[in-house]
Amino acid sequence: MALWAMGDFHLAFSVDKPMEVFDPVWKNHEKKIQKYVRKSVKDTDTIVITGDHSWGRNLEECELDLKFIEDLPGKKILLRGNHDMFWDAKKTAKLNDAFDGKMYFLQNNYYTYEDYALVGTKGYCYEGKDSIEHFMKIRERELERLQISFDKAKGDGYSKFIMFLHYPPTSIGEQESPFTQIAEEYGVEQVIYSHCHGQKRYDDSFKGEVNGIMYRLVSADYLRFKPQRIL
Length: 231
Ligand SMILES: [Fe+2]
Ligand SMILES: [Fe+2]
Fold this sequence. Notes:
Helix content: 25-40%
Shape: globular
Order of helices and strands: EHEHEHEEEHEHEEEE
Bound molecules: fe (ii) ion
Strand order of the largest sheet: 5-6-7-8-10-9
Number of strands: 11
């Protein structure tokens, strides 16, 4: 048994959104993802896929992309990314019903791996794209959702945590944030995030150990499409 993570598959089997226009590393990226995930992840393993799954704008346009994920080996736990238009956070239970036994959607709930609780939410950091007021509002909502995930796990007796975010835990230049504070408060062992694409963005936030917590960036291009072993 092993726990793996990788995020930002940015699949587009039904819509015209070639990723290699951003960086040649993305050429045939879905083939690389399939090859490396199949090579590493066993059916008895768990993989957390940290958001930006599909470019489709609704469930219908995402169908083939989600089928691609469903067909990968292991237990698939999905986190919401900023591009996941098919996933209304408030209707996560509906997705979990629809894909029951095939894929698991992490939002306002938690999953487990051995004696660890896997908690998470999309998160948010400031990228200069919105007003400070809007940023604070979205971040607050995400913190509430993360808190629900922790509360449910803790309420069920879990005390060991791995925390998953789509966005980096800190905005550029920050040494801490409400997300790193909550991770420290709960004694989280690892914080896993993705979202950052391209050489210029890989150092946006923490990587490695900070205040006893291991931070890992797992965006697919950063990992060259090879899943990262977490446990
Ligand atoms: Fe992304
Ligand atoms: Fe993203």
